[in-house]
Amino acid sequence: MRGIFVVLGVVLSSLACTGAAAAGTLETVVVPSRFVDAKRVALGAPPPGGAPRANSLAVNVLLPDGYAANPRGRYPVLYLLHGAAQAYDHWAADGYGEIRKRARDFPGIVVMPQGGVAGFYSDWVGPGGPRWESYILRELIPAIEARYRVRPGRRWHAIAGLSMGGYGTMYLAGQRPDYFGSAASFSGVLSPQDDQQLDLVAQSILGLAIPDFRYREIFGPPDGFNAIGHNPSLTLGNLAATRLFVSAGNAAPCAGDDVAPTDFTGLGPQGSPAFAPPLAALEGPALFYFLETLVRNETDRFIARSEAAGLKPTKLLGCGIHWWDTFNRGFDAARRWDFFAPPPKAPAAWTFTTAARSGVAWGFRFSLDRPATALTVLERRGRRLRGTGAGTLRISARGGCRLTATLPFDRRLPKRCS
Questions:
Q1: Where is the signal peptide (predicted)?
Q2: What is the CATH number of domain 5-337?
Q3: What residues have CB less than 8 Å from 154, skipping those under 6 apart?
Q4: Which end of the chain, N or C, is more open, meaning fewer C-beta atoms within 10 Å of its C-beta?
Q5: pLDDT tens, 15-71?
Q6: Best-predicted range by mean pLDDT (122-131, 170-179, 260-269)
Q7: How far apart are CA 404 and CA 287, in angstroms?
């Protein structure tokens, strides 16, 4: 970790609000990375009216009202992820997320990181590709906790996002169920691998609009182990102890919604000419209607599989297209649902599935001796730990717990492995 630095300082110190507490301070910081080279990845352009900025892994952090006046206080944290063709500052921009108004009286810290134009919050399989998952889980979270007074405990750590960020929400929450107690998706891409016919159409459209979107360089073959391991609707055991919220529209605008959004400025200078004026006035709205049809189908599939697995996601399904009116309705409903309500207790028995080479499963840190060639599945039942996959797995936990085993294995854990 090369540290975390304030680069733009305090953007907003407070907002006055009649009859309600003011919103807190909005800071912009940079969290550099050894996993993502900001100069080599496509980062979304500023929202309309936003100031030009250099390519960097910038993060907006909204601090709750009274944070500075309470130097001993610790606060819940919500990681809020942006969508494709957007950037870290869209959640705070006027006419978009307007988080300073939307999160007025919010009891916790809101962290809005950079995720790339189409990074999908994943470690890409393509040679030299960015490793967004490693950045978020191994660099961003520790940096935020080192700088800000984050309250410990799963209950006080939530993650949410829209569209691509909805995907990142459920995927990252599933990779760190020991850290995140609640996860909320707003029009999220929740089943990106197993409905290939529909997704291939989406990929061709996004390939035109977002040159950085290359499915196989991100996930590999659609029927491969890595794509399966990155499909939240196929790894639901990882979310068995996580509170879940999902929302999506039906591609029909609600009353008062923007029915013809055409803003593609988030694509930046690499945006496709196919979506530049005057064609954007015709093609743009059609894309936003189509995308909500896609994510609604994927959300429905995620819900059905979740409920079949015994999970109980809270749902908001109604009108809306793939635009900020719909995303913001989802966020507002998730606030009422409460990002920081108590999650289920950490389970004594659990199953964890991953395509990653290393990670954390309920306090057990693991790493393979070589890049993964198959899904790794760990299953704990009492004192027994079972694993399937390929390669040699090294596991460690608190108390001096150490284990090295060749997959597959079935071991009785030593007493020091709590």
A1: 1-22
A2: 3.40.50.1820
A3: 178, 179, 180, 181, 343, 346
A4: C
A5: 333 233 345 799 999 999 999 999 999 887 788 777 777 789 999 999 999 999 999
A6: 170-179
A7: 50
Contacts 24+ apart (CB under 8 A), 66-69: 66/24, 67/24, 67/25, 67/109, 67/149, 68/25
Averaged pLDDT, 112-120: 93
**pLDDT tens figures, 202-224:** 555 555 555 556 788 899 988 89
Residue 27 neighbours by CB distance under 10 Å: 19
pLDDT confidence of residue 196: 58
Does residue 187 register a pLDDT over 90?
yes
Inter-CA distances, 144 with 34, 59, 151, 381, Å? 16, 10, 12, 34
Report the C-alpha gap between 386 and 374 in whole angstroms. 16
SS3 380: strand
pTM for this predicted structure:
0.91
234 CB-near residues (< 8 Å, 6+ apart): 191, 193, 194, 228, 305
pLDDT confidence of residue 277: 56
Residue written as token pair 């004026």: 277
Which tokens go with 8? 């733009």
Instruction: Write down the domain spans for the chain.
Output: 5-337, 350-412
Tokens, residue 300: 């429905």
80: β partners: 160
CA nearest to 247, candidates 186, 175, 204: 186
Cα 24 to Cα 75: distance, rounded to the nearest angstrom: 13
Spatial CB neighbours of 216, under 8 Å, sequence gap ≥ 6: 125, 126, 222
Taking Cα atoms as reference points, which of 239, 235, 231 lies closest to residue 215? Answer: 231
* Residue for token pair 């609000």: 17
